# Entry
Amino acid sequence: MQRAPRAPVRATHEQLRQATNACRECPIGEHATQSVIGEGALRARLMLVGEQPGDQEDLQGRPFVGPAGRLLQRAFEELGWQREKLYLTNAVKHFKFQLRGKRRMHKTPGQREAQACLHWLEIEVQMVRPRALVALGATAARSLLGRPISVMQMRGQWIDSRFGPPMLVTLHPSALLRGDPLRRESTWDAWLRDLSAAASVLA
Ligand code: URA
# Structure
């Protein structure tokens, strides 16, 4: 596999965007519109990490601007958090999809792809130096921890991440979007409870 031009360890945000955009360390980048790196406060106390950009994120070049992002925004509003004071990013920087007719359907990135992207995530953590991380879902948790865990068992708990800052584990917003409509309210309340464990980091 072709090696990506590495961003300098003390990369600026723009250098990182360009370097990830050119990255072909795994096959996903070839088919995506562009890379999507994190955005938000470059000195944020809290960094939230999702899985990979979705269709909208791929087109706009920004993380969490589609349906999952809208749900996350609703949670921030209930928690009294301002998105621009956080740093939102993903474990994988390109959109992996499968074509169904003309629709690009999300495809979960494989472990090899997440592993190839890990150094970009590490640079973001070094750049922002957050006090804490939030892993949204299993892919983010695995990248931040270095081993797989059960999100349902570990949700709401703090674990030491491989990059230093402690990380809080919870569900990915897409899991709520896909969840049982009859349990929507209790699932939402439980998710907010998980996220609220990180409120002290922002205080
Ligand atoms: N899902 C993610 O994990 N990240 C995004 O940016 C959008 C959807």
Notes: Residues 13-202 form a domain with the Uracil-DNA Glycosylase, subunit E fold (CATH 3.40.470.10). The pocket of uracil is lined by residues 50-54, 57, 63-64, 66, 68-69, 90, 172, 174 (CB under 6 Å).
